[in-house]
Structures are given as structure tokens and as C-alpha cells.
Design a protein that fits this description.
homotetramer; alpha/beta; TIM Barrel; 12 helices; 46% helix; globular
């Protein structure tokens, strides 16, 4: 399906449920997708960081994406992360995504290697030309270790290479400047924030939507927040964001002395989704460290505090 | 004078005008202070990053601070940066600031050396005890190369060590979590954002005020933005912020191949203030590279575009 | 073939020659491998950073590795990089490497995602168990953005998980401490430096060998350096290293304003290998920027200066 | 006194002994200086990182420097750190150092602020011109957060701005390239490594000397290492370096969960110096965390293991 221009609203980066044996649990993918669509989300983003894309084999990625496309059944667009180190490898991922029926692609700058704005531009242009689907740039310096230069995004928005930006840089000041400079240049370009704690501010600033990892846990909350902002009811938007910010503390459930931030946050999203009955099993992929019982209890307490349990 | 609790509103980080010979131009300090107070700002922050504090000798710092305190004449509180590497050196700066009549102090975590949260806490506690003035923590990782941990700020807010926070981290997501956790704990604690491009969002999120470097150039704009936000008129606040975000592009006036970010941004603030007649001379302190004529022309164009010239 | 314990000597990280169309040029792989073995190297490391592994598809990686294994024909061991973001993906790469006939595997810590020492340990243990080949840890913070903790390497050396370390961290101080602590614990553990400019010092410190990207260009030089060090002739070793350090300046051939460090260094290695007749075509993989004629002339001048042309 | 050209040998960065009340213990400064000179060091570097310069007030710095100059009595040159954020502040420190009788100055690039190579060059040139003493550049990215570009050092060595470099970057590969390029250009330029774990390799590479923090604890060891290297006896140099590398583990005495790296390393140097009877009191300056008894016992064990107790 063609995606709306600009793509807007709540597009959760869907977690990838696994079985206890570590396989993709396609039944839970479908159940979760159904739940999210029922909550009113405006799209699904598969195979992003919250989807554990860095932890999944190519075969697992394909399985998860196919299940989501099938579950979405054209009701909302499905964006597919095509996360790999450089162009040729991303093109392999893009071919899989096209085959699985994705509606748009989401790619980062090259990583692992050292890169340069000229190379990043060439990278996105080659992907756009080869894959034939709308392309979103994924700005996630915590993973990629470069920040997409604002001038580069403006250039690739202006010439049609990019359909949009998923900004997970956390740099809302730079995002504001981008929004101000972008509007006269590329009004159909979609700016989506991945900063799930400042969505009210981002929407006030003119962002088109949000890609919140926490949306796996409380999609209704983000939809309410988005609708309030659309209606100009900023007091409601703020209150909803405050509630979600308090809920977000569940990502700290794991002990930082025992595990990495990914283990804690992705483990918490999955534990919460299981406690809410959205998926069958909270297992995360190796080598992440599983949350222990005390950590899961902390997740449960946050869900209760937010009125979700 | 006792500062309001919480301190709120627009508190510009005042630039330090210099003469062509490099001395502090106290006449321009006074004229600028008078202008800012006339524009309705709620306080003055001397000797911050925008004040070139890292470039001024102790004697120059004292001169600039005394002039500002004298010019403010108790109409608005004067906060003084006491920026130095570690505790004993900060205490020397604090003694100067007390002597000059500052109403509150603003200190960073230790820098140059490698530090630890336990040491940062001890650092702020010693400064608070020794100096006898309200103390604000200055979170500016781009300079200090550590980010103040949220738990540490909560602890020092709760026990009264800190009267407030100037958050120049640019991490508005972390700021949101702090605000949500802080309110029930320390309602009089003042949270000021130094992120001058996301002030509407920060005020929506519950921040008490803003410390905008660009406020040296357009104090009226920030006061209008603040007042609109206070009144719940978010459409006006957003429009004002958009205008200021466009104006902020003047900080890119210098060629990044020829100078550092400080030379460009501080040079542009000073060039703008001179073009607006607020100070006599746009010189910045060594070893910053002066803006050339083309750069100053770019600054002028931005002022014109924002309706200031 | 079983690898020597400890693996020692000169093990170049072999570049991956491409055709003008971008395919792996297996003829040039073989010719280069033959040249390197003839120069006296002690092993070949395929699919490392110098091998453009981050730029090659899985199919290309397999093609290059198979050609090298075939060319080596058991005369020297072939190590294969299995570079991917996390465990399951690395295991897919490892299965390919085993199939191609590699003698040992070289893996990094997880990247793209945020990780933790406990997870890194689990990562290496799972790879070692599943792949059934000797495993080398590849410490390359410039790519992976974490440094392998010394205690972790000691633990995994002591329990047999790791057969060795390729240290491309550039942190020779930490390497010295590792060497001092490692010897009584795991005398067969192989420590290979990837810091091609400090090989004399590393060998003096007790390293077993070197994995020099520049060894693609001057394998004889590194073999002479290694042999001099083995013989305790440090004056000769130093002079050879000085000559190689001067030659290394060819990696700066590209204009840093126009391309990234990878484009410049890998482009220069390939340009040099072509000028020396070791491969047919100097093309690098997308999105790297090709060296222009002036840059290739700079490479040629360095080769001449080092007595290679 | 004029310093040798190039300055060479062992120049310890002298710790600054404090009394229990936190004052500079000039008696211990003198005793330690006497001990170091007796051990055969070739110079004293006061007010470097090991000297806790970031923790001392200007008055304390002056006191410590005057005591050391007086104790040295012209037998070895005294270098003085003039560590501050930018040019004007460094010039104040330099005036103090000149007044105290220092023989040379050691300055870093600007820090706290963001800088640029053009500004760094201007910074060193202004200091050199104003202070009238030989000037050493102090490359310490862990504190300053920029690395001195090699081209910049070459330029400032070639034009006589700098008399030498203290390289505490830990980047021995870059150091090697510098040494190779520097020799024909500025044969009298002094290159001193601050990487106390790779001194044998640095001397093999052609460095002129070493500035080892651990030299406060085992000056005789570093002098033996230096003399062996001068004599071309690399086996002895290596063995001495290995012994010193094992001793260096005392810097890990403090619990990293309870304190920063500075507290642990500087606390350990001082604890060791006190255990060896070189200073009266092991106190470090606020806000560093003191070593507890268990940590001091670990220091004692390392001294015993190295044959110093």
C-alpha cells in the first residue's frame, strides 16, 4: 500500500516475540499487531532497535516481517528496518523486505566502519534507487555512532531520496531546527520522533508522529497523546506524556551491574507485554541477560502504577 | 536579595562585552543589563558559557560580575557562574562571587579530571556549605564531559543542597523524567533549560524557566515565549520558538573549517548585540577566531529576517 | 589444519580485491594470497576490517574466503572474520566460515546494540561452543565502540574460550598489562597486535605477532621486522618499523574533506596493491569514495619512497 | 637554568603532598624532590595531572612549585604545568610559574570550551610569546577531550613555538608517526611519553624520555629502564618495564564503584609514597574519595611484590 504523505501518527517499533526456544513466535507477532492496530496506531515499524533487529538472523527477520505484514492486512502501513553495516548488505535486507511485502524501508547510515556525509548520501541514494520503496532515514547515534547532519537530511528530503526521518538522536534542539528549515522545502516529508519521553514537545514543534518503544506496552496512551496534540489540547497531551514518562521507568528494571541497557529495556518491554497478555513469552535473544523475578516485579509495579494492570 | 523559589522565567546567560584591547567593557555590561531588565527578564546569569567564562581571568570575571550586580540594583537576581575544575578552585571563585554581591551560584561537576557520582555529590555539598548562597547545578556535558545522573540531582534536590538545575545537556528525555520524579519531592526546586531551541516543549513539560544564550540577542522574544507558555497559549509559544529557532542559525555564521563552535556562536552573539546597539565592540577573547565581514553579514541577515533590524 | 599454539608471526588482514563491476575477484584473491605466503607470512586473516568485511554481502564474504582457503592449500592457517552485530548473526557467519574451510574464527563483541561484559562473555562462549573452531577476540573499539575489558580477556583466555586476541584498540598500555598478567595464566594464548605502527614495541613487550593492514602492501617488510625481533636485533626491527611507519602515510592519500577514513585507507591499500601488480583493480565497495588520480599519485610516491616501486 | 635540548630522561610528574588539613606540605615536597633527584631523574614536572593540579588553588600551586624549585636548586630542570581552560587564564598561571622560578612550562590545548586547531595554535603561540620560557605541549585527551593533531605539533615544533611534547594520549601509533616525521624537521624537539606502561617501546621508537606518574613510587626503576634503553640493552629494559607494569596495578586499589579513577590512582601513588617514607601524609584533595584500609593494603602488597618494601 502507498504510505500517507507525510506519514503521521503513532507507529510503534514492534517488539519481536520469541518462543522459549528462541524462534520467532509468529502467533504472538500477529496477536500483538492486532492489538496495536486495534488501539489505533497509524503504522507498524518492524525490525527496529526495539524489535531486536540486531539480534535476529536474516531468516528470523523475514519471518517476523512476513507475519506482521500478513496481520496488518493493509489496514496500516508496515515499515521494515533494513539494518546492516553498509550498502550492499542493506540491499540484501531490502530485497527481503520487498519480498515480504513491506510498504517502506528504514535504514541507518553505515556503521562499524568510519564514514563521511558524502558516503552517507550515496548510501541512501543507492538504497532508494535499488529498492523502489519509500525510504526513511533512521538517525540513532547511540547505535550507529554518527549523527545524521541536518544539511544532509535537508538535501535528501529536498531531492526526494528520503520520504522521512525517524529521529532517535534525542537531540530535540537539532530536530527543531530541522523542522523549521524543512517545512518550506519538503512539506510531504515525514518527521517521526523516536524520543518517547518528549512526544508532546515534538508534536508541538511540528513533528508528524512518533515511534515509541513504549508503545508496545501502552499503545492507547500514545494514541491519546497524539490525538490530544492534534486537537490542540496541550494540557491533556502533557498529562498523558507525564504518565507515560513515569511508566517508562520500567526500562530500568534490570540491574545495570548485571546487564546492558538493551537487556534491561527490551526485557522490560517484553515482560510488560507478556504481563498484559499481548505475547506468550518474554524471552529476549542472546546474548542479552534475562530479567530475574525481582526485575519482572518492578515491571509489574510500573504497569500497576500506570493503570494498565 | 533572596531569589524566588523556584526561580523561574527568562534568565539570560549574559555575554561579557570586551573592549578592542580585550578588557571587560563595564559600560557595555551595564547597558546590556539595563536592556535585558527592560525587556522583562527574570534574572541575569553572569559568567556562564555564553559569558565566555572559560576565557576570562579571575580579575575579569570579578569586574564583569560587579558591574552586572551594580546595574541590576536588586531589580532581578544575579546568578554567578563559578566555573573551575574542582572543589577548592570553585570555592575561590565562589568567594569572589559572594564578594561581588551575587544572589546565587552556578557550578558544574568537576572537569579535566575523571570523576564519579560520589565525588560530584561531595563537590556540590562542600560548595553549598562553604559559600552560603543558593546553589544551582550546571549540567553541560559538552564542556564537562559527564552528564549529571538523574538520581544524583534528585538526591541533592531532596536534601536542599541544590536550589535548582541549569540543564544544558540537550537531553530533553532525561529532563522529562527528572521533572516527573522531582515535583512531589522538591516542589521549590528550579529547573531551567539551557536548550534555547526547545523552550516551548520544556515549559510544557513543566520546566520553570530558560537560560538562553540567544536571549542576549532577542530577550523580548524569549519573554514573549515564556509569557505565552505561562498563559497556556501554546500556539503563540510555538510560533515564537520557531522564529527564535530560525534566528538561532546566526550561530553558524563562522566557517567551521576556520574556527571552533565557540568562536562562531559567541562571535555571532556579540556581533548581533553590537549591530543592535547593545554593546560597543564585538571582540571575543583569545584564542577565539574573530568573525570576518562575510560572517558578520550573515549575522545581520538573520537579525533582519527575524525582524530585529 | 590445527593452528600453532600460540599462533604467531605476521598474519595480514587480507584485502578483498573486487572487479570493476563490484564482484569479488577470486583470481586476484589467489594471486595476492600466493604473494603473501611467498613473502613468508604465518597466516592469512580474511574478512577483517582491511578486507572490507563490513561492505561485503554474505555471498561475497563466502566467495573471498573460499578462494583464500583454496589458495593457501594448508600452507598457512586461514583465519576468518565473522563480523556481525550479535550472537545469532555471528553464528550464521561462523557456519559459512566452517563450510569454507577456515582454520579459526575472529569475532568482535556485540555492536550496534549496547552491551555489557557479562553479555560479551556469553557471546564469545556461545560462538566457541557452536562453531567448533579456535576463536580469536577482535578488540576494535573504533568500529565496535566498546573496549574489551582486560579482566574479561583474562577470564576467557584462562577457561579456553578464546585461543587468542587481535588487539586493534591502539591502547598499548592496556596491552602491556594484559601480556604481563596473561603469561602465567595461559601461555598458549596468542596475542596479536593490529597496531601496525608499534609492532617493534609490541613484540618487545611479548606479543606473538601482528595483523598489519599495511602488510598487504609490504609483507616482506613486516616479515623482516618480525624476524629481527625474534632474533633480538631491535635496532633492525626499529629501522624496519620506521620505514613502514613512513610508508603508512599512504593511508592519508584521500582528502578527508571528501571521504571517510575507510575510503582513504582501504582505497590506498588497494591502489598500492594494484600498482605493485598484486591485484587487478583497486575498486572499493560502495559507498566508499574512490581515490582520484592525485590521491593515487600520492600512494605511488609513498611506494617509491619506501623502495617498493 | 636552560633546559637540555632535547630534554631527555626520566622527568616524574611530581605528586603534591598535602597535610591532613589539606595544605601543601612543603616539607614533604622537598623530601620527595630530594629522593627523586637522588634516584637520578633528569627533571621534575610539577603541577601535572599526577600533581593534582586540577584540585589545587592558585596559591597551593604556587606554594608547591616554589618548594620544588628551591629543593631542586638547579640540579635538574623544573617544568611547571600551567593548566587552565584558555589563553588568558593560562597566562596568569604562567606568570606565577615564572615568578616561582620554573625552567619550562607545560600547557594543554583549551578545554571546557570547544576549540579548533587554528585556535590551539594561536593559544600556544601566545603563551610562548608572553611567558618567555620553553613551552611543552601536553597532549592528554582523557582530560582535555581533544587530541593534538600531528600536523599541528609538527608545525609548532618546526617554527620553534614548542620545545617539546608530553604525550599522554596513549596513542603510540600516532606517536610513532610523529617521531618519524619530526626528526629531520626539528632534531632538538623533545618528545616525552606519559604512557608509563610502554616506555621501552617508546624509547625504542626514539622518544627522548618519559614522564611517569609511577615514577613517584619507583623512580629508580624508571631510571634503570631509561639507562638500559640508552645502552641498547632491550632485554633489561623490557624486564624492568614488565616489573613496573605489574607494580602499576596499584592504581586499581580503589573500588571503581565507590570512586573515580583519579581517586584510585592518585590515592594509590600517595599511599605508596607514604608507605615508602617519601611523604608524611597520603591525603588527596577534595572531592576525591580517600582509599580505605583494604585499598591501602592492596597498595602495600603491590609494593612488596615489586621488591620495594
Amino acid at each position: 500500500m502507498p504510505i500517507p504523505t507525510p506519514l503521521h501518527g503513532v507507529i510503534p517499533p514492534v517488539i519481536t516475540p520469541l518462543t522459549p526456544a528462541g524462534d520467532v513466535d509468529t502467533g504472538s507477532v500477529r496477536r500483538l499487531a492486532e492489538h496495536l492496530i486495534g488501539a489505533g496506531v497509524h503504522g507498524l515499524f518492524l525490525l527496529g532497535s526495539s524489535g531486536e533487529t540486531a539480534y535476529l538472523t536474516d531468516a528470523q527477520r523475514l519471518t517476523a516481517l512476513e507475519a506482521a505484514v500478513d496481520a496488518a492486512a493493509g489496514r496500516v502501513p508496515v515499515l521494515a528496518g533494513v539494518i546492516d553495516t553498509t550498502t550492499a548488505r542493506v540491499l540484501d535486507r531490502a530485497a527481503d523486505a520487498v519480498r515480504a511485502g513491506a510498504d517502506a524501508l528504514v535504514a541507518t547510515a553505515p556503521f562499524y566502519t568510519r564514514t563521511h556525509p558524502v558516503e552517507i548520501a550515496g548510501h541512501f541514494r543507492r538504497i532508494r534507487e535499488a529498492a523502489g520503496l519509500p525510504l526513511f532515514a533512521y538517525d540513532i547515534p547511540v547505535a550507529v555512532h554518527t549523527k545524521l547532519p541536518r544539511d544532509l537530511v535537508l538535501e535528501l528530503a529536498g531531492d526526494g531520496t528520503l520520504a522521512g526521518l525517524k529521529d532517535s538522536s534525542g537531540d530535540d534542539g537539532s530536530l527543531r531546527r530541522l523542522l523549521v528549515e524543512l517545512r518550506p522545502l519538503a512539506p510531504d516529508f515525514s518527521v517521526l520522533t523516536g524520543s518517547e519521553l518528549t512526544v508532546d514537545g515534538a508534536l508541538l514543534a511540528g513533528a508528524d508522529g512518533v515511534v515509541p518503544g513504549l508503545g508496545n506496552v501502552d499503545a492507547h496512551g500514545y494514541v491519546r497523546l497524539y490525538e490530544a496534540a492534534r486537537a490542540g489540547d496541550w494540557a491533556t497531551a502533557r498529562a498523558e506524556q507525564d504518565r507515560l514518562a513515569a511508566l517508562f521507568a520500567l526500562t530500568d528494571a534490570g540491574d545495570p551491574g548485571l546487564m546492558g541497557a538493551s537487556s534491561s529495556a527490551l526485557g522490560a518491554f517484553k515482560a510488560a507485554a507478556r504481563l498484559l497478555g499481548l505475547i506468550d513469552c518474554a524471552a529476549t535473544a542472546a546474548p542479552q541477560v534475562p530479567l530475574d523475578e525481582a526485575a519482572v516485579a518492578r515491571v509489574r509495579a510500573r504497569l500497576t502504577g500506570a493503570g494498565l494492570l
